Amino acid sequence: MKLGTLKTRHRDGELVVVDRQLRHYVAAPDIAPTLQAALDDWRNIRPRLEDIYRALNNGACESKPFRPEQMAAPLPRAYQWLDGSAYLSHVERVRKARGAELPPALLEDPLMYQGGSDILLGACDAILAASEDYGIDFEAEVAVITDDVPLGVSAADAAAHIQLVMLVNDVSLRHLIPGELAKGFGFLHGKPASAFSPVAVTLDELADAWRDNKLHRPLTVHWNDQLFGQADAGTDMQFDFAHLIQHAAKTRSLGAGTIIGSGTVSNYDRAAGCSCIVEQRVVEIVESGAAVTPFMYYGDRVRIEMLTSQGQSIFGAIEQVVKPCP
């Protein structure tokens, strides 16, 4: 099943069921007005939404044309947005870029930060930045949405709480991050609003691409229409989503609608390219002694998408343009 949120005058938008080919949608206000409302009663609401999904795919109900630019983030605002860093090749390269040491428990203890979730961007919303000097960077990721997760959940039990999967562009302002982290209190200015794919999908929709609580498909990134990376999201992922949920719920329960990100998808194989600019810059430093790839400028475009083995878009594409703040 594929679900999205249509932009309306209401800040939480309107929940819609989208067909498998991402061509049509049906609103279901009598079942749940928003995705958060559906997640709050997921056990009862999901079967009713699945009935609509089957009818929509069979052409058995009236529908409207699906347009990604009309979609908000699947959750336009979320109770919680927690982003991990599950790909160690990314951790190692980024830490090297800013001259930071690797955490001693890197292989056993996931990195995770709590991001702002009051405003989450739609797939076609602009990346707004007050200055090009901030070091504007994209970060292509996978994320899951949970139902209610109990405090202290085990990794084995955490897997059952994964209800939806989507893509993320976790924008970073690279030149602001080192100064913030040096204060010892985490991200704030260096992490503006993140953008999410037009739809979120249930695990059954991913078929055999979802294994071991990981999504085993290449995540394709284009920057200004040039292929930048095709790292496989299931390869080199040190901590699967069940372990990320376990880590997040170590000392607190997680409310339905919690979003947990994988961190930037990254492979040790350099032929896979990169899912963010800073990794490419680190590779350049290692190979030639200097970074030559700039960060993003106003007018730059990024496209993030994942396809099935048959070439069908799974989540729709995140397509954003960098613009100056109004």
Structure summarized in a few sentences:
With 326 residues, the protein is an alpha+beta fold.
Description:
There is one protein chain. This protein has 326 residues and is of the alpha+beta class. The protein has two domains: 2-66, no CATH class; 75-324, Fumarylacetoacetate hydrolase, domain 2. 19% of the residues lie in helices and 26% in strands. The chain has helices at residues 35-40, 42-57, 88-97, 155-158, 177-182, 241-248, 277-288, and strands at 2-6, 14-18, 24-27, 64-65, 71-72, 81-84, 112-115, 127-129, 136-137, 140-146, 162-169, 172-173, 195-196, 199-201, 210-211, 214-215, 218-223, 226-232, 259-261, 301-306, 318-324. The strands form five sheets. Strands 1, 2, 3, 4, 5 and 14 form a six-stranded antiparallel sheet that branches. It has a six-stranded mixed sheet with strand order 7-6-19-10-11-13, covered by helices on one side. α3 (88-97) crosses α7 (277-288). The protein is globular, with a radius of gyration of 19 Å. The relative contact order is 0.19.
